[in-house]
Amino acid sequence: MTHTRIRKFNTAETYPEQNLDNDLCQAVVARGTTVFLRGQCPQDLDTAQNINSHDPVEQTHKVMQNIQQLIGEAGGSMEHLCKVVVYITDVRHREAVYRTMGSYIKGIHPVSTGLCVPALARPDWLVEIDATFVIPE
């Protein structure tokens, strides 16, 4: 069974003043095995070492690569993504973070919540994303 995505939209339409291109939706109906990922940050999953970059695009690529790797290890794939929560430390990075994330979720349409927070667990981190997946039965 595939997930039902309710009221699909693209952020280019809902935020025309911003240069965004994210396929999202208002609700996801899913049945199966739920996989909750810890908030992923721009660090190596094996060593917990930060990547050597203060660029929001590079940091977001690493975060999304971690998410892809972890859902693969759990037996799923990105198409099983139901929800992301995006934390950024500077609202000026929003466009760069969302455009980068958008390239990983093109055509998937998860629900999404975004927050601008004063800081993350390590001072060098600009972005953290947690994700919830449901692997169909």
In words, what does this structure look like?
This protein is of the alpha+beta class and 137 residues long. The protein has one domain: 60s Ribosomal Protein L30, Chain: A (2-Layer Sandwich), CATH 3.30.1330.40. It contains three helices and eight strands. A four-stranded mixed sheet has the order 5-8-6-7, covered by helices on one side. Strands 1-4 form a two-stranded antiparallel sheet. Strand 6, helix 3 and strand 7 form a beta-alpha-beta unit. Helix 2 runs parallel beside helix 3. The mean pLDDT is 95.
N/C terminus separation: 7 Å
Based on CA inertia axes, which overall geometry fits? Answer: globular
> Could you name the CATH homologous superfamily?
RutC-like
Number of helices, counting only DSSP H or I runs of 4 residues or more: 3
> Radius of gyration, rounded?
14 Å
Q: What's the story with the biggest beta sheet? A: 4 strands, mixed
Q: How much of the polypeptide forms β-strand, as a percent range?
A: 25-35%
Q: Regarding CATH, which class?
A: Alpha Beta
